[in-house]
From TrEMBL:
Listed InterPro entries: Cys/Met-Metab_PyrdxlP-dep_enz, PyrdxlP-dep_Trfase, PyrdxlP-dep_Trfase_major
Name of the protein in question: Cysteine-S-conjugate beta-lyase
SUPFAM superfamilies: PLP-dependent transferases (SSF53383)
Known cofactor(s): pyridoxal 5'-phosphate
UniProt family annotation: Belongs to the trans-sulfuration enzymes family.
Pfam families in UniProt: Cys_Met_Meta_PP
Organism: Salvia divinorum
Enzyme Commission code(s) on record: 4.4.1.13
Molecular function as annotated in GO: cysteine-S-conjugate beta-lyase activity
């Protein structure tokens, strides 16, 4: 396995669906593998909306959402959301 040959990984960062090919990643399987090796999982969910895709429920630890496109629905603001699983992790990341 490639993951076993790499130096210790602290974070697996992915997007699903991918851009520009729109391929769907198996988030649950990737999260299981990453967590088994002690890595956090961050999913860039800007292409989807939180209504259509909830990566935290599939094992992700951190999710980026575009609040500009799907939550606000207007071009009069630019915003993003970081959803973090668990208060402990949120506190650890607060000052980064």
């Amino acid at each position: 396995m490639l993951l076993l040959q790499l130096p210790p990984t602290k974070l697996v960062w992915l997007e699903s669906p991918t851009n520009p090919r729109r391929q769907i990643s198996d988030l649950r399987k990737i999260a299981e593998l990453a967590h088994a090796h002690g890595a956090l999982v961050l999913v860039d969910n800007r292409i989807m909306s939180p209504v259509l895709s909830q990566p935290l429920e599939l094992g992700a630890d951190i999710v980026m959402h575009s609040a500009t496109k799907f939550i606000a629905g207007h071009i009069d603001l630019m915003a993003g959301v970081l959803a973090i699983k668990g208060e402990s992790l949120a506190k650890d990341l607060y000052f980064l």
